[in-house]
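To make this tangible, this section ends with a sequence with its structure tokens:
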Amino acid sequence: MRPSIRIGVWTAVLSLCIAGAARAQTEVTPATGSQRWSVQSANTVGAGANVVSGQAGYPGLEVMFIHGLDSTTDVNAQVGLNYAFEGLTQGTRFEFTAQVGIRKELLVFGNSLKLAGRFDPGILWGASPGQFGIKIPVGLELGIPINELLIANASLDLPLFFTFGNVNAFYIPLLFGVGVEYLVQPNLAVTAKLKMGPTWGTGDASGSSFTLYALVGAAYKF
């Protein structure tokens, strides 16, 4: 499937999710705090709460610690070990990443759907060829409750990064995503997410390529 077709498909998915939310819930208000916690579905973890989550798949392994600052804001620290550099599907390369971030609930649609924004800056190191880089990703996530235990999400991410070393370049990914989180117990959730889209490179990495994240995992709140 060509990148242009993939972009169109995920744009349509996000449009349908947002349009459906608008039809079902016309009232939009500022966020006032979550009753349901999540790690990637707009609902923050709650004031004073701590969550540890891990996900594995393509392009590797991701572990995150999240702390709730207040009812609508949480912060996180995360590390990643990848076998595909920044999710690029052109070959395999070892990569280490370390990031800190913040997530903020922005709007509530009706009484249930929530929109959050996030910013997760950090560093990366890739091997063969060696690259050190700075990550400055921003994104939006929409939480779509299905029932008391299951919540779906749609996301739009712009995980920008630039690299130094053997490859000096600036990368511009545009990723569209969907996912689900299911509460097995009040403090334990299983998660799955799929994100994909094009990445444009400049400098030594001029051109475009396809980016994919397909991960499953679990999260524990304590």
